[in-house]
Amino acid sequence: MCGKNYVIAAIIGAVVILAIAAIGASRNPQTETIVNNSINKTEVVAAKPDKIEVFLFHPTQRCITCITIGKFAGETVAEFFQPELKGGQIEFREINIDLPENKILAQKFQASGSSLRINVIANGQDNISEDTYVWRLTQNEAQFKSYLKNKLDNLLGK
To answer: What is the pLDDT of residues 103-138, one digit of tens each?
Structure first.
């Protein structure tokens, strides 16, 4: 009986390991989920956006990684999206969530700490997503900018 239990435990362990590997492999960092007014409700935006808001939310006390994300994201938007910036189709802002005047905006974006949030406004609807992949790219400025540029290009339908 003991040998049979060992075999069952080994099979269960192998299934768990395979499931974890499959979940990790299925996550594509190039395609982040866009949500409609809620971080929990998934809905991909199909329409061409009216506007894209790229907001870095942060507390007053910031780590070097958060500062770097703000710097790289701001530079990416400024370098590659001048026509969209001037035309009001893209907006980039760094928003301190600790300031009273930013509380309502932080609540709308469900931002409680440092995070890069992208709101694709299409047909008057907010489609807010958090991009967590940028945290992995802070050691490589070129990679970060390429990733964010491609993401924004895709969202703009370029």
So the answer is: 999 999 999 999 999 999 999 999 999 999 999 999
For residue 141, what are the CA distances in angstroms to 23, 64, 158?
28, 14, 22
Q: Are 157 and 90 in contact (CB under 8 A)?
A: no
Tens digits of per-residue pLDDT, 39-64?
333 344 456 899 999 999 999 999 99
| Lookup: tokens for 66 | 């958060």
Ramachandran sector of residue 157 (left: φ over 0; alpha: ψ -120 to 50; beta: rest): left
Among 43, 139, 149, CA closest to 90: 149
Domain limits, the chain: 51-156
Token pair of 9 as six digits: 């435990």
CATH architecture of the domain with residue range 51-156: 3-Layer(aba) Sandwich (3.40)
- Residue pair 94/19 in contact (Cβ under 8 Å)? The answer is no
Q: What is the pTM of this model?
A: 0.70
